[in-house]
Amino acid sequence: MDYKMSTGATLFILLSCLLAVFCNVSQYLCIGRFSAVSFQVLGHMKTVCVLTLGWLLFDSELTLKNIMGMALAVMVIYSWAVELEKQSSAKTAHHAKNSLTEEEIRQLKGDLANAPVMDIELGEPKA
Q1: Whole-number Cα distances in Å, 63 to 42, 46, 58, 75
Q2: Alpha carbon of 81 to those of 68, 76, 87: distances in Å?
Q3: How far, in Å, CA of 23 to CA of 35, rounded?
């Protein structure tokens, strides 16, 4: 190994290490916030980004197999996002259907203000 380390090579190695640290930290932060499926989808999107950037920046070869795999991954990611949005909309609509109106909330609060304070253990009104 007769490679002489230049300042540029050292900087790019440090930059690569720094990006790897940020990637690992972001994955650590995602684990607790997202479901397992969401985490896998993010991983597939990261792979598509790495392959695309490798092609753009380093002129790496993209085979038909790579292109088809990336296209399939993007289609699956899009369909997953659409399905997730549908489920979210359905959940919101169901929640809104079972929610109380402002008038019902006001009536309940009014009834509560006039109710006597009860002793929980004895089940009798407190004096």
Answers
A1: 23, 18, 15, 18
A2: 20, 9, 10
A3: 18
Cβ partners under 8 Å of residue 46, min gap 6: 23
Q: Quick check: 71 and 47 in contact, CB under 8 A?
A: no
Mean of the per-residue pLDDT values for the chain? 81
* Crossing angle of helices 36-58 and 64-97, rounded to 10°: 140
**Does the predicted TM-score (pTM) go above 0.70?**
no
Backbone φ, ψ for residue 76 (5° rounding): -65, -40
Rounded to whole angstroms, the Cα distance separating 55 from 32 reads: 32
Tokens matching residue 113: 């203000």
| pLDDT, tens digit (0-9, with 9 covering 90-100), for 104-116 | 777 777 766 666 6
